[in-house]
């Protein structure tokens, strides 16, 4: 790595950030290692070198210096930018097989693929590293201190990937850091696999900090989960594709209903609390959708350029229309018309008002008031159906890679990391990068422009809004063509 120098940047938000810099603006945002706070840890040869499945694979082990670049669109003079440590098996490991006592926990909302990740962590530990002691934590974070554990082995998890949900159960709230770490310590657990969304990864980060503070030889690995795809840095989250695919069934039904009746309007509400990725991708995939509304793109109903005007135009042109709306869209409009107390779930996430019912009623009222067009509106709410399904084939493969990468990382002594693909290469990403912000649809990026040109819907933006927005340009993670935030310099 040339003239690299390694250092820890101390600052209150980014406690002990491990950064390695190199030539030509190379920056490695490294992940912590058990050796950082426990000196003289012994290492062992990786048991995979004797495994017939792997010993024939040339260069199976990842080179210690391999890193993955966050910036793939470059110019002649652009600096090399931010890199992450490449995921994969290392030549030497920091745990002996019979020393490992692992646990797996799933937290937050459901997502297709949770059971596949659980299965592959268990099978990866068992078959690749000969680990026999693996516990499931029942019911999310609070299960560490309030429930019994579930013993896991390849037999008990054999066919769970064919089922939706999580065999371990999940929950929101109940993150009591010291009780959780007490439980880890009391049970002699030394590898913790934490599967969950943005809140879960923040919880994993504080668990890691407490484990480090206590000086425990315990590796903490996060596996990012959310169908909302709101986790930054990684290309996309597992289960997202399956959810988008399932959403097609609801959109198809809305289209069939709308097409079959005069002035038919099909309204479909999809998940997406703060990020409209599911609605955007489901719309782009379907081509039957005339309008897609997401939290990131404010819209208005009345007047020129508004939603009602557009619906009327589409009905006159086409005789029917399909509207897809993300659950977090237009919440500010609902707040004006529905007076309700702000409420939060057990994790502190804001509880949303039902935008699907609200918009359906507003559309009906509008056309009834005008009395010149009789409409037939059908509202479909497949909310939980798109996340309670088993993962599709490509998500299953993705989940396997995530699980195995997490296992390789923990065995190699890395800790305090989330695993995930960055430009297609699986990487170990420090928690602070995952937790620093949320991934959102950027409406000034090309992907949203593609959607607008596919549906022909109004952008609901004035020229001033566009200029304003462009100044705050943000990365579009799912769009490989767009610069990431770190590419903007
Ligand atoms: N800042 C935080 N610090 C510690 N724990 C947290 C934090 N935020 C959330 N958690 C815990 O993480 C768990 C999951 O959080 P949350 O319910 O927000 O779901 P999530 O992981 O964001 O998943 P999703 O939003 O995809 O459903 C909960 O047990 C919650 O208490
Ligand atoms: O009703 P629950 O289980 O709290 O989950 C709802 C939320 O979970 C998600 O699926 C993931 O965060 C959101 O899209 C949705 O708002
Ligand atoms: Mg969340």
TrEMBL record:
Give residues annotated as binding Mg(2+). Answer: 198
Question: How is this protein's activity kept under control?
Answer: Allosterically activated by AMP.
User: Which Gene Ontology terms cover its molecular function?
Assistant: 6-phosphofructokinase activity; ATP binding; metal ion binding
Q: Where is the Phosphofructokinase domain?
A: 103-408
Which residues make up the binding site for ATP?
Answer: 109, 172-173, 197-200
Keyword ATP-binding, does the record have it?
Answer: yes
Oligomeric and partner information: Homotetramer.
Q: Which family does it belong to?
A: Belongs to the phosphofructokinase type A (PFKA) family. PPi-dependent PFK group II subfamily. Atypical ATP-dependent clade 'X' sub-subfamily.
Query: What HAMAP family does the annotation carry?
Result: Phosphofructokinase_II_X
Q: What is this protein called?
A: ATP-dependent 6-phosphofructokinase
- Native organism is Parasponia andersonii
């Amino acid at each position: 790595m040339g003239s690299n120098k390694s250092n820890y940047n101390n600052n209150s938000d980014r406690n002990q950030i491990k950064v390695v810099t190199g030539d030509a603006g190379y920056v490695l945002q490294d992940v912590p290692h058990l050796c950082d706070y426990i000196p003289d840890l012994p290492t062992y040869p990786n048991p995979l070198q004797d495994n017939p499945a792997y010993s024939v694979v040339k260069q199976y082990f990842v080179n210690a210096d391999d890193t993955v670049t966050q910036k793939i669109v470059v110019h002649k003079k652009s600096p090399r930018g931010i890199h992450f440590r490449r995921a994969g098996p290392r030549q030497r490991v920091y745990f002996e097989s019979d020393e490992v006592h692992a646990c797996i926990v799933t937290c937050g909302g459901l997502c297709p693929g949770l059971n596949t990740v659980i299965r592959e962590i268990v099978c990866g530990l068992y078959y690749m590293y000969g680990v026999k002691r693996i516990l499931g934590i029942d019911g999310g974070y609070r299960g560490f201190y309030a429930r019994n554990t579930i013993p896991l082995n390849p037999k008990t998890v054999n066919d769970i990937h064919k089922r939706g949900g999580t065999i371990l159960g999940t929950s929101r709230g109940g993150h009591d850091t010291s009780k959780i770490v007490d439980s880890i310590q009391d049970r002699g657990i030394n590898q913790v696999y934490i599967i969950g969304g943005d809140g879960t990864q923040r919880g994993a980060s504080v668990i890691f900090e407490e484990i480090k503070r206590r000086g425990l030889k315990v590796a903490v690995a996060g596996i990012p989960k959310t169908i909302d795809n709101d986790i930054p840095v990684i290309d996309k989250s597992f289960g997202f594709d399956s959810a988008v695919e399932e959403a097609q069934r609801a959109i198809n039904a809305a289209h069939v209903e709308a097409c079959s009746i005069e002035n038919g309007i099909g309204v479909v509400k999809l998940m997406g609390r703060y990020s409209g990725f599911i609605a955007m991708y489901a719309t782009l995939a379907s081509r039957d959708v005339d309008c897609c509304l997401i939290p990131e793109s404010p819209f208005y109903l009345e007047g020129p350029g508004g939603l009602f005007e557009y619906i009327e135009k589409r009905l006159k042109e086409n005789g029917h229309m399909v509207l897809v709306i993300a659950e977090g869209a237009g919440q500010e409009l609902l707040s004006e018309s529905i007076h309700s107390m702000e409420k939060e779930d057990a994790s502190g996430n804001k509880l949303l008002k039902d935008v699907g019912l609200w918009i359906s009623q507003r559309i009906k009222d509008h056309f009834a008031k005008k009395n010149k067009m009789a409409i037939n509106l059908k509202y479909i709410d497949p909310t939980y159906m798109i996340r309670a399904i088993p993962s599709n084939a490509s998500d299953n493969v993705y989940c396997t890679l995530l699980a195995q990468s997490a296992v390789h990382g923990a065995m190699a002594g890395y800790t305090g990391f989330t695993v995930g693909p960055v430009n297609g290469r699986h990487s170990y990403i420090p928690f602070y990068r995952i937790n620093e912000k949320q991934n959102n649809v950027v409406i000034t990026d090309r992907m949203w422009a593609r959607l607008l040109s596919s549906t022909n819907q109004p952008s609901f933006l004035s020229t001033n809004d566009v200029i304003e927005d462009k100044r705050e340009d943000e990365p579009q993670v799912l769009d490989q063509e767009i610069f990431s935030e770190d590419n903007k310099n």
